[in-house]
Amino acid sequence: MPDAEDVRRIALSLPDTTEKTAWSMPTFRVAGKMFATLPEDETSIAVRCPKEERDELVMAEPDKFWIAGHEAQFAWVRARLAALEDEEELRDILADSWRQAAPGPLVEAHPELGLPTAR
User: Fold this and answer.
1) Backbone φ, ψ for residue 109 (5° rounding)
2) Are strands 76-80 and 33-37 parallel, antiparallel or unpaired?
C-alpha cells in the first residue's frame, strides 16, 4: 500500500516538480500550478481530474475515490492511499494530474508520461 512518502517521492520524480506547503499541507506543483496535495492526515491525495470524468470515476470506485465538499466546484478528486493497488497505480494517478497542470511544451518534452486527459 502506498503511503505519504511514496506520494512525495513519485511526485518529485516528475519533471520540474516542486513541493510547497500551503494550507498547512504539502502540495506538489509544476510550473507553479498545483497538481497534487497530501491533505489532513496524509492518508489520501487530492489530484486534478476533469469534472466530466470525476463523477464517473467516483461512481465506479467509491471506496477509492471521492470528492471533498470544499473541492466540488473545482476539477479535483481525492484518492485513498490504502485503496490503491500499488505504487504503479499511484504513479499513473500523479502523472495524469501532472500532465493536466504542466505547460504543453513540458508535456511534449516528456512523451514517456503520456498525453494529458484534459487541458
Assistant:
1) -75, -10
2) unpaired
